[in-house]
Write a structure and sequence with these properties.
The structure holds two protein chains of two kinds. By secondary structure, chain A is mainly beta. Chain A is built from no helices and eleven strands. In chain A, the strands form two sheets. In chain A, strands 2, 4, 5, 6, 9, 10 and 11 form a seven-stranded mixed beta sheet that branches. Chain A is globular, with a radius of gyration of 14 Å. By secondary structure, chain B is mostly beta strands. Chain B has a six-stranded mixed beta sheet, with no helix packed on it. In chain B, a hairpin with a 3-residue loop joins strand 5 and strand 6. Chain B is globular, with a radius of gyration of 13 Å. The chains are: A mainly beta, B mainly beta. Chains A and B meet through strand 5, strand 9 and strand 10 of A and strand 4 and strand 5 of B.
């Protein structure tokens, strides 16, 4: 089956760090751009970051620029999001998503989501 | 950044109703418009890509139209499992912005 499975999130203190990961299976991971999307409790979907096939190109939402780092390991079919200097407003469910270029870049496969809570 | 605006923010409907949700982009995005369904506690699910192409496995009661800056998602006959929140998204440029969502309630 084609799937994305995210690691458990967790609790971090303001100013702390956390890394979430996303394991891909059932498809050629290195052939797809990958994205992170988050959703604060009771709120809508917000795009966070993306990287291209080999990780050589990355882009971030202004709200996380300079604090979050997206990366990938194509040999292991893994996607990562390193989150530093966390703030209360980063509290959200984080989803990894596959962008399918044959579908105009639509996000056709999503992970199950992982909850990240930032609180003292 | 391209802003996506959905309307309405919520609606109430009956099983069997025809439901229409609109999405407007702040600039022309061609047909780089996608629709997702999200049920409570679940990840979003792609319904429509390229403004009007039905994703594999999605029931044919879902359809999308539009191009440029104005788009529509239609559910021809609402089913109990369709009560959820729907999001539009543009994939014309980075950042890949979403609309604020439309909650479809019983």
């Amino acid at each position: 089956d084609v799937q994305l499975v995210e690691s458990e999130g967790g609790l971090a203190q303001p100013g702390g760090s956390l890394r979430v990961s996303c394991a891909a299976s059932g498809f050629t991971f290195s052939s797809y751009w990958m994205h992170w999307v988050r959703q604060a409790p009771g709120q809508g979907l917000v795009w966070v970051s993306y990287l291209n096939f080999d990780g050589g190109t990355t882009t971030y939402a202004d709200s996380v620029k300079g604090r979050f780092t997206i990366s990938r390991d194509n040999a292991k079919s893994m996607l990562y999001l390193q989150m530093n200097n966390l703030r209360a407003e980063d509290t959200a469910v984080y989803y990894c998503a596959r962008a399918n270029q044959r579908s105009g870049g639509a996000f056709d496969i999503w992970g199950q989501g992982t909850m990240v809570t930032v609180s003292a | 950044d391209i802003q996506m605006t959905q309307s309405p923010s919520s609606l109430s409907a009956f099983v069997g109703d025809r439901v229409t949700i609109t999405c407007r982009a702040s600039q022309s995005i061609g047909n780089f418009l996608n629709w997702y369904q999200q049920r409570p506690g679940k990840a979003p699910n792609l319904l429509i890509y390229g403004a009007s192409s039905l994703q594999s496995g999605v029931p044919s009661r879902f359809s999308g139209t539009g191009s440029g800056a104005d788009f529509t998602l239609t559910i021809s006959s609402l089913q109990p499992e369709d009560f959820a929140t729907y999001y539009c998204q543009q994939t014309y440029s980075i950042p890949r912005t979403f609309g604020q969502g439309t909650k479809v309630e019983i």
